[in-house]
Design goal:
The protein has four helices and eight strands. With 149 residues, the protein is α+β, with helices and mostly antiparallel strands.
Length: 149
């Protein structure tokens, strides 16, 4: 595989957080991980032990015991506030310290011409300024936030 570079074109490179999947591809067992962090677009999750917190499309966090409730039908956030709070804080810590979040977020929204051109396909609620702002205030409450159109 080779060595991970410390520098590319004069810029230092931070080491990647995670493990190699090469052994898994070769049919060998992987070492167990303490947690699995996920963020993609407006979806986010953290798996740790028997529990999972998740938020879909900037909605509130939910907590599930995925060992006992594989279909994720019973949100335990209010029943297990200690576990819930610990996992949300852990997710935010990873997001801030490993994902290296910026201090300020600036979004430039698409022009009105795109809305006219694409019509209903463009009219997704998630693209509305208030949806974007609500998402980032919920996910990253400590970041400054500005939407430009």
């Amino acid at each position: 595989a080779g060595e991970y570079p410390e520098e590319i074109r004069g810029h230092s490179v931070e080491p990647v957080e995670g493990i190699s999947l090469v052994d898994a591809f070769k049919g060998k067992p992987l070492s167990p991980r303490d947690f699995l962090y996920q963020q993609w677009s407006t979806n986010r999750a953290l798996f740790k032990g028997d529990y999972k917190i998740s938020s879909f499309r900037a909605n509130e966090w939910e907590l599930y015991n995925i060992t006992e409730d594989r279909s994720e039908l019973k949100n335990l956030a209010k029943e297990k506030p200690g576990i819930f709070k610990e996992m949300v804080e852990y997710w935010r810590d990873i997001a801030e310290n490993i994902d290296h979040l910026p201090d300020q977020l600036l979004f430039k929204l698409p022009s009105d011409e795109l809305e006219e051109k694409w019509g209903d396909r463009y009219n997704d609620d998630i693209l509305k300024p208030e949806s974007i702002e609500n998402f980032y205030k919920n996910v990253y409450p400590d970041l400054g936030f500005e939407v430009e159109k």
